[in-house]
Amino acid sequence: MRIPADSLIGEEGRGFRYILDGMNAERILIASECIGDARWFIAKASEYAKERRVFDRPIGQNQGIQFPIAQSYAESEAAALMMQKAAALFDAGEPCGAEANMAKYLAAEASWKAGDACMQTFGGFAFAEEYDIERKFRETRLYRTAPISANLILSYIAEHVLGMPRSF
Ligand SMILES: Cc1cc2nc3c(=O)[nH]c(=O)nc-3n(C[C@H](O)[C@H](O)[C@H](O)COP(=O)(O)OP(=O)(O)OC[C@H]3O[C@@H](n4cnc5c(N)ncnc54)[C@H](O)[C@@H]3O)c2cc1C
Known about the structure:
The chain has five helices and two strands, in the order H-E-E-H-H-H-H. The protein has helices spanning 15-51, 63-91, 97-122, 133-141, 150-161, and strands spanning 53-54, 57-58.
């Protein structure tokens, strides 16, 4: 696009490169949001599992309830480490495409799984609007699709990190 010379940001011809750098920041930001969602789901689920009693015992005493929550905790904390690594590289002005993509992928998968565990823990109450769980469950599902889908992140890793042929 033709613009006055004093409106040029950065160097001419490098616009796409600048956009890509901005996308890394966006991926780190979305990863952080997903980790926040996962922590919210995990806190809600574990509190409820301790207080809700069925058959004279808290449902959280059953491994069928506690293991998915514990697994989500482990996976979301691992995703948080990758997000922090990506953020540290970005702040240092280093390349961080692989780490930003992996952070977004891992965090989106972890928050979706934590949401599912939370839905299951709350049973039928998960579908009551007043608990906010079904709303957040829908919201966090978005990040397996946008702003870049899980498949295309895996495609990026396969091609740019592992050197396999481009799949599209
Ligand atoms: C609420 C919302 C907010 C959004 N915000 C942003 C944003 O801020 N920035 C931004 O850039 N985009 C944003 N998007 C767009 C988002 O990036 C796209 O929706 C997403 O990339 C999927 O593209 P598509 O909708 O065209 O689906 P399609 O391209 O039709 O893909 C449909 C499905 O097929 C899969 N697929 C397609 N091609 C391949 C392939 N070669 N290999 C394997 N699987 C494939 C996709 O992963 C997806 O699961 C947003 C979308 C929504 C719904």
